[in-house]
Amino acid sequence: MAKPKATEAKSAFEAYRQGLSEADVHELSLFFTDVGQHVRLAKEENAKMRADFEHALLHYHTTGVPLDVALERLSPKNLGGFYARRAILWYALDDSAKIYPLSMRHGQMAVFRLSIYFKQPIAPALLQLALTFTIKRFPSFATTVKKGFFWHYLDTSKRRYAVEPEVDIPCRPLQISSSGSQSFRVVYHHNRVSIEYFHILTDAIGGMVFLKTLAAEYLRLCGFPLCVSEGILNINGIPTKSETANEFSRADKTEKSAGFVDSPAVQMSGALSRIKPCRVLHFKMQADRLKEAAAARGATVTAYLLALMLIAGKSATDERRGTMNILLPVNMRRFYPSDTVRNFAMYCGIKLAIDEVADVASTIDNVSQQLAQKASKRSMSEMMNTTERMARRLRYVPLFIKAPAARIGYGFLGDKFFSNTLSNLGVVSMPPQMVEQVDCMDFVLGTTVTKQTACALVTVGNVAMFSIAKTTVDPSFEETLFALLTEDGLAIAVEGSPQYES
Fold it and tell me: How many domains does the chain contain in total?
């Protein structure tokens, strides 16, 4: 009968320990005593945490890192007091996040994924300690979702947050109903680390801060210089109040309100898969060439891609009447500078009657005009005001009454009102030492009940990754989009998942 893995690992560590000098054994004993003083969780959690340090030490041993260097990198000071103190903090949801737990139905959950690809395979033992050291710096992430009488809220959960090998489809719903459950997951595969977030925690900007901070700590444990700049937080710094602020009350006050509910949009044709997403594709391009192609058309990259998506969407539907509408998140930090890592984005819809979607030039012209108006500070402030007012009006309505009313009031999140989504995270900055170890990144949006596709773009260095999450096996959309991009001279490497069961 085979030994359980935990027993095998323990035996391996004991064998390693027995081979050390007396002085090293003494140093190791002091080290674990120090770990024990910093970790005061439940017995089982304490044991798992100790095992994490043992696995990391074994990794260092097998890769030739001296014990004194290993102990310095793994210093228990990086645990701080997070795992030794009682959980007392809780967080009210920001105004944008309040709708997400109310909208979960039919297996639908607002989940998005950010991934970073390193140039070397992942060392799981070091990634686990990187997460253990990093999570304390993001107290609003180290939480579990709780249901109050009026709203859901986030309650601090002191536990071991685990990394896992990737074995399932991207952006599947998280299990948040059990006590102590977490609202994000960290998975790894070969050289890729991915974090999947329930949108209740953060938006893509806040999620990127967490991913970059985790990646920098992982690289430090691998022996590369620590990088605390370019949006990377010091894991041993004290979290600030502004980092967990609900910023939606900051909008310039306007008399005009922005409506959320819209008429249903044209959807792509084709049967929906039971598995969501049934496929994820990445178009890997040179960022400078993408920018040049957009500039040659007199457009920004966002306007250029939106126009091509409208044309590709028309080719993927049998409908010839109605309006196509692409959901575009807008980062409000552009207008109201903030270092919050919580949600601080609004949305607009880029709409065009399907019979007006024609050639690339005219579509770009229409899209650019809409962007200038709809994604402006004034328009987004109007929507922020509406969001904040609605949350305030519903404040004292019991949750069981509020849920159906909120779904109607926040109709802008209803997927039937949009044909597609484009979220452009822009150019991600990183310190030069970190860029040297990173190949690229990707950004994947979870799919919804109705929409066939959801698209996202993120750029690192000169690599732009355009990702498509699909709910149908019909390839019309991506084939047309690929053709349009290549006609403009872009060389595209297509990567992604196999087709999942439909």
Answer: 2
